[in-house]
Design goal:
Length: 504
């Protein structure tokens, strides 16, 4: 019988008020159940927000360095449990085991980073326009943070959001993906073991459609952070009202390969970017925009590499499964759309007939920029190759999408490299590297349809989960009026006085 897991509310593991559960299953072997999880209701969500509200005052008043000490302990516990948790990521989400371990390493990295931020949380000082007056800004927590996280980085992304929110002094309610609830539960257990006080972190499992509005629309939740589809992101923004909202909603990322590129290096980057995590990354490379002079040579090298990759269980193979049957069906649908619109299929294109949600590594060539497979996020192992005749055309094609998350260019021309940095419309650009590989001390996020201007990680992550407070200290011992007590005002006052003297 599958192990039953509970919600975490107010420091206690408790069942849902619905009395119902759902299962999380291994996408490489759907017969393998990881356990049963609570099918929660808005009532459960309200209880979690109640608990976060009770815990917030004491946590927000704890000195940030002390909060940092707790999160540094969490980093140590994550490191001690890295192998076990990495295997869990692979079993529950499906990614190849080295990537599963990398998922946990990312959580370790962000925990260490935010622990250090407890010694900073920088504001800034500046001058005043008035004498004997001091001006500065400080960072303050927002309040209760509502976090809605996806399945593709089931420990790393919850850690990004949770740990940033915590170091800033917020209490948290986490709604993890229903495809990977156990990874989130294990992360919460580690935070509890590290010493996060009861009620500061709360976890409610269940359907996003059932729980999302109850979390997002509660007026006590003052900051919402969401990673997921563009359609749901737009709903979150409409529903949240006047509160802070951080959005990351996908991409249609491109690697530009110019005719002077190191093709072997470019192939390495494309294989990693397009088929790492089975293409299930918001930063995955789904388009290669290539100079037609090197297209044929590149395609031959790419196909030679792909033939050597084995698709199967992530514990033993190079590329793992898609996350569920719905994802498998979506990828198959887009392959048919690509063929129907005239793209040439170079390899793959079919589900793999064995237990699990496996799909062949798929490459289309001679794709036109307007085709749906070049415009819409597929989130699977499907790559479109788009030939161009110049650098300028490559940049235009790269920008010709509603998304703007990550991009890359392979070139030996420093002038083209710097023009690409300036003119490509994405939040992240790599030079002679793939579209994936963000580091936690740098901001992460995109432009256009990818988000709403916020960034995660780095100092921007601190800004996402804190408020700027401006402080003025007047030590003049008298009432001073900014914009009023100026030289001009005093001159005018003196001028008026002289007129009165003349009248007398």
């Amino acid at each position: 019988m599958a192990q039953a897991y509970l919600n975490y509310i107010g420091g206690q593991w408790v069942p849902s008020s619905s009395g119902q559960t759902f299962e999380s299953r291994n996408p490489a072997n759907p017969a393998d159940s990881l356990g049963s999880f609570q099918k929660s209701t808005p009532k459960d969500m309200k209880e979690a927000i109640d608990a976060a509200e009770r815990a917030y005052p004491d946590w927000s008043r704890m000195p940030p360095p002390k909060r940092g000490e707790i999160l540094l302990k969490a980093a140590e516990l994550l490191r001690q449990n890295k192998h076990r948790l990495g295997q869990l990521v692979t079993r529950e989400m499906g990614k190849q085991i080295k990537e599963g371990l990398g998922d946990v390493q990312e959580a370790i990295d962000i925990a260490e980073y935010v622990a250090g931020e407890g010694r900073r949380l920088y504001g800034h000082t500046t001058t005043s326009e008035l004498p004997d007056k001091f001006c500065m800004t400080i960072r303050r927590p927002v309040g209760i943070a509502g976090l809605i996280t996806p399945w593709n980085f089931p420990i790393a992304i919850p850690a990004w959001k949770l740990l940033m929110a915590l170091i800033c002094g917020n209490s948290v309610v986490l709604k993890p993906s229903s495809d990977t609830p156990l990874c989130a539960i294990e992360l919460v257990k580690i935070l509890d073991q590290a010493g996060v006080p009861k009620g500061v972190v709360n976890l409610v499992a269940g359907s996003g459609s059932e729980l999302g509005d109850a979390l997002v629309m509660d007026p006590r939740v003052r900051v919402v952070s969401f990673t997921g589809s563009k359609a749901v992101a737009e709903h979150v923004i409409r529903s949240a009202g006047l509160k802070k909202v951080g959005i990351e909603s996908g991409g249609k990322n491109a690697i530009i390969v110019m005719d002077d590129a190191d093709l072997l290096l470019a192939v390495d980057g494309v294989v990693w970017g397009a088929f790492g995590t089975t293409g299930q990354r918001c930063t995955a490379c789904s388009r290669v925009i290539i100079h037609q002079k090197v297209q044929k040579a590149f395609e031959k090298m790419l196909l030679d590499r792909l033939r050597k990759l084995k698709v199967g269980d992530g514990m033993a193979c190079d590329v793992g499964p898609l996350v569920n049957q719905q994802a498998l069906d979506k990828v198959a649908k887009y392959v048919e759309i690509g063929k129907s619109q005239g793209a040439k299929l170079l390899c793959g294109g079919r589900p793999i007939k064995k237990a699990g949600y496996f799909f062949e590594l798929t490459v289309f060539t001679n794709v036109k920029p307007s085709m749906r497979i070049a415009q819409e996020e597929i989130f699977g192992p499907v790559l479109s190759i788009i030939p161009v005749v110049s650098f300028e055309e490559a940049v235009r094609v790269c920008n010709n999408t509603e998304y703007g998350l990550s991009s890359a260019i392979y070139t030996a021309d420093i002038n083209k490299a710097f023009k690409a940095m300036e003119h490509i419309e994405t939040g992240i650009t790599y030079l002679n590297s793939s579209t994936i590989g963000a580091e936690v001390h740098l901001p992460f996020g995109g432009v256009k349809g990818t988000g709403n201007g916020t960034r995660e990680a780095g100092i921007e992550g601190i800004h996402e989960f804190s408020e700027t407070k401006t402080v003025y200290v007047d030590y003049s011992g008298k009432l001073q009026k900014a914009q009023i007590d100026t030289v001009e005002a005093k001159r005018m006052a003196g001028h008026a006085g002289s007129k009165k003297r003349v009248k007398r």
